Amino acid sequence: MGTLYLVRHGQASFGADDYDQLSELGRRQSVRLGEYFAERGIRFDGLIAGTLRRHKQTLEGILEGMNHAGEPLSWEGLNEYDSEAVIATVHEGKLAKPTSPELYRHHFRLLRDGLARWMAGATSPRGMPSYTDFVAGVAGALDHVRANHYGQNVLVVTSGGPISTAVGHVLGTKPEVTIDLNMRIRNTAITEFAFTPKRHMLVGFNAVPHLDAPQYKDWVTYA
């Protein structure tokens, strides 16, 4: 039996011109997660990350917190969908930067609608793969882990979309359930699978045990 830890990236720069960049809090979350792994004696035989900047920065922070060196395997199939392209399929023009709770809610309502249509094959967001190909990219990473890391601990750093897709793929959930999972994944949250050469089994979802202490109560974020 092996163990796969799927970790969502640290807080990025939601609403900024460049979202694909960890905030200062996002970096601290990442280092803290690495410290948590080290405190519990968890080491990794395999490191895999999407190719986005926030994935790489999160993994760097985790390794710093663990005082651990390693060269990750880059996996494009673990990259997030383009939320702006998804929203553009259901909303004309560029959205205003979300500066209020209502604008945040409006943004995510549009995102949910756009995701549902993309997943149903009703739209083709610009520059994005079909949803079938998106799932295949995530499933390919799971297949790689099973084929190459049986009996080992593997860390994968990615985004909420691929993590919810991995859970949905393993459990066989409906698309709307996958969307619900996606919307609730916290920054640097751990989703854990046990795996054999034949299959993955969900052990835990969206856990932030490294942020349980009172001094970290303001570190729990979703974007």
TrEMBL record:
Family annotation (InterPro entries): His_Pase_superF_clade-1, His_PPase_superfam, Mito_Ser/Thr_phosphatase
Stored SMART domains: PGAM (SM00855)
Name of the featured protein: Histidine phosphatase family protein
Lineage: Bacteria, Pseudomonadati, Pseudomonadota, Betaproteobacteria, Burkholderiales
Spans through the membrane: none
GO MF assignments: hydrolase activity
SUPFAM superfamilies: Phosphoglycerate mutase-like (SSF53254)
Keyword 4Fe-4S attached: no
Gene3D superfamilies: Phosphoglycerate mutase-like
Organism: Ramlibacter montanisoli
Keywords linked to the UniProt accession: Hydrolase
